[in-house]
Design goal:
By secondary structure, the chain is an alpha+beta fold. It folds into three domains: 254 residues, Bira Bifunctional Protein, Domain 2 (BirA Bifunctional Protein, domain 2, 2-Layer Sandwich); 46 residues, Herpes Virus-1 (2-Layer Sandwich), CATH 3.30.40; 96 residues, Rossmann fold. 33% of the residues lie in helices and 26% in strands. The strands form seven sheets. It has a seven-stranded mixed sheet, sandwiched between helices. The radius of gyration is 25 Å and the shape is globular. Bound molecules: adenosine-5'-triphosphate.
Length: 436
């Protein structure tokens, strides 16, 4: 099964999806660069999330907060506090971390979760440090954000006021996060620089459980709607001793990767921890008044916390298939996620009348706003199909001699390999219908 991941890593590099970071210098652990097809693809993943959150769902606002924040933000969040910098030992296999002193007390030397080998104890503060300003001393120390969430909390009041938002409402954002992961690995599954797609839903305490259930189901539906196989997805509730100290409830959405079942998204009921902590640390009162009872309360937060890279990896793995009969690799990506929506070929490259006609169709489709369209006139038709199947292009269009006579072209479907003739003037509607 690991083999499948290796094949995907190779395909991703060969076809311009994902490259190892700083590769000509020997690479850099946990860092990857997205190539031309990868940018399109990952943007489609992010766009699908944005459409879901800010268009389909109701009352959710989008934010784009900075990567750099006041250092106190990370003190309030608990990321730099004693609890987070206690010596921990991490399991090399399942990445669970344990307080070294607790393990020592009980004389445990293997991972209590999976029996894996534990790393030496060390102080963990996963935040990546940096300095702002000309002098590099303790007062200029700050961090690259370790999660996008905190930018939402510090803007809670700004959004509520400027948008006249009323509880319940949500705030979401997509952006980079940085973590000095001890064991980056499994390709883009665990990186040191990655992108998150997080949403925080602010509710009255009594509503938190209801929305926790709501968001769990909505988020699962999102992966299913984009074609991920049902049997490869599951919920995993966090055990009591696994819950963050502030969390009231948490479930992960897990995917069965070639390296086992692992988290792809967390849905958490964070209680009133975040807004109460930021009120305390900033001095700004972020509490609300219940209009019925007149009582003050801190909104509870139900969070949906996904990773753009991790979701993209799930889509790639889930879509990857090998057709044994004609030895082709097919990336059965949902058309909405595919980098190219279509590819146009002239049947033969040495017949100018075919090339010119195909070129016309290509340029026409490019203008239609359907999404990127590829052009290919190399090699034979079979090779071109193979080449497009491998990157997940859902439809390939060929101009042949009949096209010159009746203005119809053949459209081939990636998954069924069935071909049909379509009138050139009808192509736009044809694809619009398919992409709906
Ligand atoms: P893990 O247990 O895998 O380290 P986590 O529980 O620390 O993850 P969260 O802090 O809840 O993860 O982050 C939310 C989401 O952000 C994760 O579900 C994942 O999709 C993504 N994510 C977190 N860390 C990374 C990383 N190092 N590389 C890529 N994506 C990540």
């Amino acid at each position: 099964m690991e083999n499948k991941l290796e094949k995907i890593v190779a395909l991703a590099k060969r076809r311009g999806f994902i490259f190892p970071g700083s590769e000509i210098y020997g690479g850099i652990s946990g860092i990857y660069d997205y190539g031309p097809l990868g940018v399109e693809f990952k943007n489609n993943v992010k766009q699908a999330w944005r459409k879901e959150m800010f268009r389909r769902q109701d009352n959710i606002f989008e934010l784009d907060s900075s990567i750099l924040m006041q250092r106190q933000v990370w003190e309030a969040s608990g990321h730099t506090s004693a609890g987070f910098t206690d010596p921990l030992r991490e399991c090399k296999k399942c990445h669970h971390r344990y307080r070294a002193d607790h393990l020592a007390e009980e004389g445990i030397d293997k991972c209590p979760n999976c029996g894996g080998e534990l790393m030496e104890a060390r102080k963990f503060n996963l935040l990546v440090e940096t300095h702002l300003g000309p002098v590099k001393d303790d007062s200029s120390l700050t961090y690259l954000r370790g999660e996008t969430t905190q930018g939402i909390y510090v803007n809670y009041k700004n959004i509520k006021t400027s948008m006249s938002a009323e509880i319940p409402f949500g705030v979401g954002q997509i952006g980079k996060a940085f973590r000095n992961e001890i064991t980056p690995g499994h390709f883009t599954y665990r990186m040191r620089e990655f992108e998150q797609m997080e949403q925080q839903y602010f509710v009255k305490p009594a509503q938190a459980e209801k929305y926790f259930e709501y968001w769990k189901n909505e988020r699962m539906k999102w992966y299913l709607g984009l074609g991920v196989k049902k049997e490869k997805l599951r919920f995993r509730p966090h055990a009591k001793d696994e819950l963050a100290h502030y969390a009231k409830g948490a479930e992960d959405i897990e995917y069965e990767f070639p390296f086992g079942w692992h988290e792809i998204e967390g849905v958490h009921n964070r209680g009133d921890w975040d807004l109460s902590r930021h009120s305390k640390f900033s001095g700004e009162d972020l509490s609300e008044v219940d209009e019925k009872t007149g009582e003050r309360f801190y909104p509870y937060i139900v969070e949906t916390s996904a990773g753009a890279d991790r979701a993209a990896l799930v889509f790639l793995i889930d879509a990857y298939s090998e057709d044994k009969n004609n030895e082709r690799i097919v990336l059965k990506l949902h058309p909405k996620l595919a980098s190219y929506k279509a590819a146009v070929f002239p049947l033969l490259r040495n017949k100018p009348e075919l090339v010119n006609k195909a070129r016309e169709v290509y340029l026409m489709l490019k203008k239609q706003n359907l999404g990127p369209v590829a052009w290919d006139d190399r090699g034979n038709i079979g090779k071109r199909y193979y080449s497009q199947d491998e990157i997940g292009t859902p439809w390939t269009i060929t101009c042949d001699f009949q096209t010159l006579e009746d203005d119809t072209i053949t459209v081939r479907d990636r998954d069924t390999t069935k071909q049909e003739r379509v009138k050139i003037q009808e192509l736009k509607n044809y694809f619009e219908d398919k992409l709906k």
